[in-house]
Amino acid sequence: MSKESAPVGVRRLGRVLYITLSRPALKNAINEDMVTTLYRNLREAAQDDSVGAVVLEGSGDAFCAGADIKNLALGAEHTRKYSTEVLLRVGAEAAMLLHEMPKPTIAMIRGPAMGGGLSLALACDFRVADSTASLSYAHTKIALSGDFAAAYFLSKWMGAGKAREFCLLNPVYGAQEAFASGLLSKVCEDSELEADVERLATRLAEGPTNALACIKANLKNAQEMSCENYIAEEIKNFQRCRNSDEHREALKAFIEKREPNFPRQQVRG
Question: Nearest 5°: CA angle at 72, between 117 and 83?
Fold first, then answer.
């Protein structure tokens, strides 16, 4: 496959990695190549200490319209390298990487974020959109139950009751309604979306990476563990931070009334 036709693009801006879903003629609809490439890029980003934050975006005027419906309608499963079950697992694991990797993730949303595309957006720590954003579960419309951990994330951000309404009735939320429902973190002016996301991503990427990873772990553990087990893990994470060079530099900078200069791994060539 040529570079020009790659379904997922990557670019670096300092410590921020931008991952772009890139099938703009089809509103970045998800196919086999896209989901497997996305998973590989996310796995590499999670393990790369020179990456401080990840931004997921769509090419053109859409974030991601969900599955490639034409391929579904044609019954193209027999032409693929992987089975439907494997691709569903890979997509769900890509979403969980966005949610659980030890660094902040941001979805930059313009236009539709639907079906599996909505799942990928909701997996991110921050979902920042402009006024053109439209969010929908979408699976209901084509008599499917959902994929890429969609209901898992909807229940987290909306609450169980609103998630049931959103999935079963399948409304399309505009940006402001999605923000009011907790699906979006922020709605920007259309002309300011990219600059706002860049500022947010840079701030996070230049922050205390080890501490942010431990905070994400605490937030995950708080929802999944008993109080006793959570406190034990919280203490371990505190000690991990307390004994780090990052923390020592932050304390020194505070005392010296300057911005910290955290120890960093160099960007990989």
Answer: 85
